[in-house]
Design a protein that fits this description.
The chain folds into two domains: 86 residues, Alpha Horseshoe (Serine Threonine Protein Phosphatase 5, Tetratricopeptide repeat), CATH 1.25.40.10; 59 residues, no CATH class. It is mainly alpha-helical. Helices cover 82% and strands 0% of the residues. It contains eight helices and no strands.
Length: 146
C-alpha cells in the first residue's frame, strides 16, 4: 500500500503504511525491516522532513548491515545523496550499482525522481543524464533481457 500511495504522490498515506510495515518487521527482526525503513526514509525525505529522514537513514544503515542487504544500503545512499547531503557523485554510484545488479525497475523509477528533482533545481544538464538512465533502464525492461 505504501508503494502505491508513493507512486500516486499521496505521501501522507504512503508514510502511514510504511510506518506500519516498519513496526511489524522491526518487532520480528524480519529481513524486510531494512526495505521498510528505506521506504519510510525516502518518503520522509520527499516530504522534506529531513530530520526524521536522517534518523531513519542512520538506523537503516545499521539494519541493512545486520541483514547484509547491499541493495538497501545503496538505496539509502540515494536518500543521502539526493536529500540529506546532495551529492551527485554518490547518486551516480548508486545508479552504477543498480545497473551492475540489473535492477532496472529501481533504476528507472529513481532516475526519473532524481531527474525531476534536478530539473526543479534548474540543473537541467545533470537532469538529462538521469533521464537518459531512466530511458536506458526502460529499454532494458521492455527489451525482455531482464
Amino acid at each position: 500500500m505504501g508503494l502505491c500511495y508513493n507512486n500516486l504522490e499521496e505521501l501522507d498515506n504512503s508514510e502511514k503504511h510504511f510506518q506500519i510495515a516498519y513496526e511489524i518487521y522491526k518487532n520480528r527482526k524480519h529481513i524486510y525491516e531494512s526495505k521498510a525503513i528505506f521506504n519510510l526514509a525516502y518518503v520522509k525525505a520527499k516530504k522534506n522532513d529531513l530530520k526524521a529522514a536522517l534518523e531513519l537513514y542512520q538506523e537503516g544503515q545499521k539494519v541493512a548491515a545486520r541483514h547484509n542487504n547491499q541493495e538497501v544500503t545503496e538505496k539509502l545512499k540515494l536518500v543521502k545523496g539526493l536529500y540529506l547531503s546532495f551529492d551527485l557523485q554518490t547518486l551516480r554510484e548508486v545508479f552504477k550499482f543498480f545497473k551492475e545488479k540489473n535492477l532496472y525497475g529501481d533504476m528507472e523509477e529513481y532516475a526519473v525522481a532524481v531527474a525531476d528533482f534536478l530539473t526543479n533545481k534548474e540543473d537541467r544538464h545533470d537532469a538529462v543524464d538521469f533521464y537518459q538512465m531512466a530511458i536506458e533502464a526502460r529499454k532494458q525492461i521492455q527489451g525482455g533481457n531482464i
